[in-house]
Amino acid sequence: MITGKVWVNGKIVPIEEACISVLDHGFLYGHGVFETMRTYAGRTFLFREHLERMRSSAALIRIVVPFTDRQLEQGISELLMENRLTEAYVRITVSRGAGPMGIRGEFGSPTVLIFAKPLPLLPEEVYLLGRDLCILQTRRNSPETGTRIKSLNYLNSLLGAWEAEERGYAEGIMLDAKGNIAEGTVSNLFFVEEDHLVTPSPDTGLLTGVTRSYVLTIAKSLGIETVEAAFSTERLKRFSEGFTTNSLSGIVPIRSVEGQLFPECPGPVTSLFMERHKLVVKEGAFDHGV
């Protein structure tokens, strides 16, 4: 049973007392967006970038977030204090709010919820030895908004995650309708081919993760060429190393895909990005990531 407090529409309340309307269209129709973030020593990593994506996503489905970035940042800070957390998983959820049954009509103000809990950390050995991925039968569906947003309709990722778990994997690779590699169920993917970084193109329907964008910025600052492309699983044989990115786990080396081991894990490029990330965290350079 999860305990503690949550932030609901500007007020912090015990989680067992938190309520939203049964007519909220986030519950009825999946009409809403969310962002998952982590904190280091009480500071939210890449907060500005997460909020920018959240507002952009909300606008695509006709939701105006009714709080300023400063108000949400203050809400996170106060919630962390109330729950006595410094290293935390933080999620902001914005739903359309209460409205009539049906997809048309007048709506009230959007519902905004901030949730914070102790950060679920991966075992240290995962960063040292890497993790194994599988190729999922569950395909990444085409985004309904043209560009994929982090919406409350998360069923496609859930189906993929359940499949991976049933096969004994912590993460799996989802292909698009054409059979090209898209992303993990909860992560973006990077591979190394010769002297450059390769990552699936947004055209595959992937979610352009905040940590993915952060890694691309680091690559540019280091002078590492990055290629965003559509490619099939056949190309995996040409890669020397790889890693996943996720807002909670950061940068995680890939040891193998479907039993095919990468020559190096973690490889020199992966290690370089991991060390650079540690430096960013240590120095608290959260605004721009580099």
From TrEMBL:
Protein's name according to its UniProt entry: 4-amino-4-deoxychorismate lyase
Gene3D superfamilies of this UniProt entry?
3.30.470.10, D-amino Acid Aminotransferase, subunit A, domain 2
One GO BP annotation of this record = carboxylic acid biosynthetic process
Q: Which InterPro entries match?
A: Aminotrans_IV, Aminotrans_IV_CS, Aminotransferase-like, BCAT-like_C, BCAT-like_N, Class-IV_PLP-Dep_Aminotrnsfr
Q: What protein family is recorded?
A: Belongs to the class-IV pyridoxal-phosphate-dependent aminotransferase family.
Q: Name one GO cellular component term.
A: cytosol
Q: How does it assemble?
A: Homodimer.
- Pfam families hit by this protein: Aminotran_4 (PF01063)
Named cofactor requirement(s): pyridoxal 5'-phosphate
Which keywords has UniProt assigned to this entry? Answer: Lyase, Pyridoxal phosphate
